[in-house]
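User: Last request for today: this protein with D-xylitol-5-phosphate, please.
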Amino acid sequence: MCILAPSLLAADFSKLKDEVNILNEAKTPWLHLDIMDYCFVPNLSFGAGIVKSLRPYTQMIFDAHLMVIEPEKYIKDFKNAGADYFTFHLEATDNPQKVIDEIRANGMKVGISIKPKTLVSDLEPYLEYLDLILIMSVEPGFGGQKFMWDMLEKIQWLKAKKQEGYNYLIEIDGGINRETAKAAVKSGAEVLVAGTAVFGATDLGAEVAYYSTLE
Ligand code: DX5
Ligand code: ZN
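Assistant: Here's the final one, the structure of the complex with D-xylitol-5-phosphate:
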């Protein structure tokens, strides 16, 4: 069974608490939090303050995806906001190991994400230190884009590598819908991020149930 992580980016920002409650009722296990800085990506979303204000209203695992330069500057605030996973971009730092160690020292689970043009083999030196690897299947920055099918090769590579004894979860983000989700899970994805597909569904509960039972 895979884990669904709806992306709050696709929610109605004028009623975030209500949106979280709807996800609670649908028994959604994770909440994906897209943090953008208008620098690493050409968009701005929300920060640790909003994450902290939602924390008391849900037990969902908070899966923070930091699309920012200098991710190390965000670690303490996200820890204090109640983030469970802190995922930064490999392309956003010259010293990934230092960022990994700092996240770990702050008691959060550690994730690294890569953009579509980055080689998955660039992650090899860090595999043993990671709890999660996030493969972007669209260019980061915006919801509602078209799924890049060739990213599934990266998922397959990570799945094969994992058999060597690594513990990371394999997550995919961007353009996930019922069709692409099926293919992603078949390739080895264990966590599915979905924004538009979940928040745009007429029956959100049914949508959540569909993704959660894929295997
Ligand atoms: C893109 C974000 C994604 C995005 C997913 O930069 O990381 O999480 O919101 O949205 P959909 O599912 O609409 O592609
Ligand atoms: Zn994301």
